Amino acid sequence: MRHTKRAVTAALLTSAALALTGCAAGDASSSGDAASCEPAGEDVTLEFTSWIPGIEDAVAAWNDENPDIQVEVQTGPNGNSGTYQNFFNQLEAGNAPDLGQIEYDALPNFRVQDGLENLAVCEDVVAAQDQFLDWTWGQVSLGTDDEAYGIPQDQGPMALFYRSDLFEQNGIDVPTTWDEYRTAAEAIREQGGYITNFSQTDINQFAGFVWQAGGEWFANDGDAWDVELTSDASVQVAEYWQDLIENDLVSTYPAWTDEWNNAYNSGEVWTWNSAVWGANSIASGAPDTAGNWSVALAPQWASGDAAAGNWGGSSIAVFKGTDHLYEAAKFALWLNTSDEALTILNEQAAIYPATKAGLELPTLTAGVEFYGGQAIYDVFAEASTQVDPDFVWGPTMTQVYADVSDGFKGAASGSSTLVEALEKGQASTIDALEAQSIPVAE
Amino acid sequence: MSTAIEPEATSASPAVNPRGIGRRGDAHPGATRGRGPRESLFSRTGAMIVMAVFTFYFLVPIWWLLVASTKDRGQLFSTNPLWFADFQLFENIGALFDYRNGVYLRWILNSLLYAGLGAVVATVLAAMCGYALAKYRFPGRETIFNVVLGGVLVPATALALPLFLLFSRVQLTDTFWAVFLPSVVSPFGVYLSRVFAEASVPDELLEASRLDGAGELRTFFTVSIRLMFPALVTVFLFQFVTIWNNFFLPLIMLRSEELFPVTYGLYAWNSTINQFPELRTYVLVGSLLSIIPLIITFLLLQRYWRTGLGSGSLK
């Protein structure tokens, strides 16, 4: 795919360049690539691509109130399943939509390919920064102080889903540290169960663990990328899980499969360290266990710590080449900060907002029946204040996930270890960056 | 699901069918009959076992799909995957048709339009082209034929991205034409039509109709196309299935949900079921329903399809 794309790019480079300059000539701004954030002064229509079902309802509400800024929703598969590649194709062809849904871990990729507008040139956007949790803003500012390449939409703070009934019946305390978690794992193994399932494929879950441990996988000083897949925290997390795998204290079903669902549904697996959106995954994958689950803050590395990881979350970005930066930014802000939009998104698609105020929506403070009436979102709201704001994603996360996942599968089958997988991932990531001429810090 | 099953099924049948025809042709003379019983015990049982295994292999996923479509979300994981629990198929179908104002039905219609209309146009074009290459002598004929033949070797997937860039230049992406136009081209159809026109349309007949004063177009549409009919059904079926299963082109070209074919729509849903588990049932039921048009087309046209392939392979 990449190769085809490259070849075609090369072949059509001249024509594309002509097309781009043709478009740019229409713009007022000729100084540098910083587009100005001025209202168009006329009716505009924006194109917006998202794969969130039900987002049309929120957009319809906007269109009713803003006859001069109409938004057309376009859709497609989940980002990594094709929509991101489409965005890149469309950027090359010069017909990208004005706005698009981009997950946090994919933003740097679009940024290094120069596909995104810096929204921080819009005053409204800068003024809205305080409404967002610091760390969600950090995900779109990409480690800079005065840039923003998207408006945070949702987040995935991680906590511990656990079978409160089983823990209680067997007199096992709910672990608050990772040490206690291992002790509990042994006790649960004696009962014939597993404390959790280690997913070989959800590398962003593992990244969430590293994030919680205070580690980072990437850093960018403005010039070059640091790759730190084998940083101390990362290795610490890997060794911890390696130990659980080697001692058969966790199951290793491939995640999101029928047997994985069944392991939870049958009560074989007792906990899941997952993000807020996991609440629905359990409810749908393990329906027989309704009422038996609870949520607690994630186990900590040292007793008394208060850190949480994050798994998932996305932003609404504005693509390079839009003629309506001001209007696009205005819509993106409304979509992700207004109570009206956030309520629709939460009801339609269980979107968990990235704003401080959004976490206090009425639907997010009520008890949830599947969790025995526990107000589980209060736990996640607390977790989301504990997420480290400095975690940065790299520009080739798809490749990182694929390579590390290959290694993790080996670790799950016993032919390799998690640390080795990270070491291999480290090397292949540096290769991948260099292959794309992205500077790597030595 | 259907996308995974269908290509194998279709690619398997052309390989199996001609041989089936050939063997049946040989079986008619009495000599083979006398020899038959001795080898039948061994080889026929063997053949039957192989066939049975493959039939089983191809049908189990469809059976699973059928069973899974009748369950509600909870039972999907908690009950035997290959046997029914509460029979909810019709409730599930109803829910699917209701979801998002019946967008699924829209996708089915789109697919029928892309595949049905596209295959008809592709067949007519391929027939005319193949016929011309077979029956007219003009400079560059072989070159054109060889270029078309080369086109058979280029996978459609490899062409999707260049096509996208081309269509972008003329601002036709995200339109009906973006999927329809590339679908009406069938190099394989041209090849088959040429082979078949050479075999089944006698030059004498053409001369006769010319003598009677029929123009070339009239001759083609009233005489030749009838003689070529079995081959054209084959071309039609091939192209219908190809367009129906062509998923990559819509993926790259389309952004508006109301233009999606059913394969792409289901893929888009399926890609988000981890995040939105309620879509799982819709994907399952939708996949089950989406293979029905293909099955109907095959059953209706099977007879012609076999004849067409048989004659093509004999030549």
Q: What name is given to the CATH topology of one domain in chain B?
A: MetI-like fold
Q: CA-to-CA gap between the ends of chain A?
A: 29 Å
Give average pLDDT of chain B, whole number: 84
Tell me, briefly, the overall form of chain B. Answer: globular
Query: Which strand order does the major sheet of chain A show?
Result: 2-1-3-10-4
Number of domains of chain A: 2
What does this structure look like?
- The complex is a heterodimer of chains A (442) and B (315).
- With 442 residues, chain A is α+β, with helices and mostly antiparallel strands.
- Chain A has helices spanning 2-26, 55-65, 83-93, 107-112, 123-128, 134-141, 164-169, 178-190, 203-212, 232-246, 258-265, 278-285, 325-337, 339-349, 376-384, 397-412, 418-435; strands at residues 44-49, 69-74, 99-103, 151-152, 158-163, 218-220, 225-227, 271-275, 293-297, 314-318.
- Chain A contains 17 helices and 10 strands.
- The longest helix of chain A has 25 residues, at 2-26.
- Chain B is globular.
- Chain B has helices at 2-27, 30-69, 73-78, 89-98, 103-135, 141-153, 156-169, 176-183, 187-200, 203-211, 216-227, 229-245, 248-253, 262-270, 279-290, 292-314.
- Chain B has a domain at 95-314: MetI-like (MetI-like fold).
- In chain B, 80% of the residues lie in helices and 0% in strands.
- Chain A: It holds the Pfam family SBP_bac_1.
- Chain A: Residues 1-24 form the signal peptide.
- Chain A: It comes from Agromyces kandeliae.
